[in-house]
Amino acid sequence: MADPMTNLFQGGSLGLMPETRMFINNDYKSRMDFNPQTGQYFVDPYRTGDTAAQDTLADLYEAEFQDYLNRFFPVEQDLIQQMTTGFGGLQQEEISRAQQAVATQYANLSGQQRRRLGGFGLRETESFYKDLERSQVSATVAASNLARMRSDERRTQILSGGLGSALTDRAALQQGGANG
User: Is the Cβ–Cβ distance between 102 and 139 less than 8 Å?
Assistant: First the structure.
């Protein structure tokens, strides 16, 4: 393995990748105690010697990186998998939910109209059902398109890392804007 400083100057990482670690034989793990119940590392802050401060800081960085690998990296990998290989299925599920919501609302509307007219001893006309059917088709298409656009937008935001800013912007718009 090449000298770590050579790796650093040739574009390698700062000891985060296994092939460019400053501690080649993983002796950083022997200086830290891992608690499997809490899933956290204990870094001894009471070291002595000439390199105690830099060894403690290096152990803190390693513990922080291990914490990232244990807690956040699996979630990021799952999101990436969902947005790349599993996106079509997720998008279709969202479109189906939108279509189901429209169908449910129109079924409720038809039932309400039938009960209202039934209270007066009347029936709906054929034109009412045709108008309702045309309106339902139009609403279903609009809901499907909107669901497709929103899922594409969410995918782009997740893959570009801007999901947090998009949610903040959306919350500001719902509350009346920055000046509202």
Answer: yes
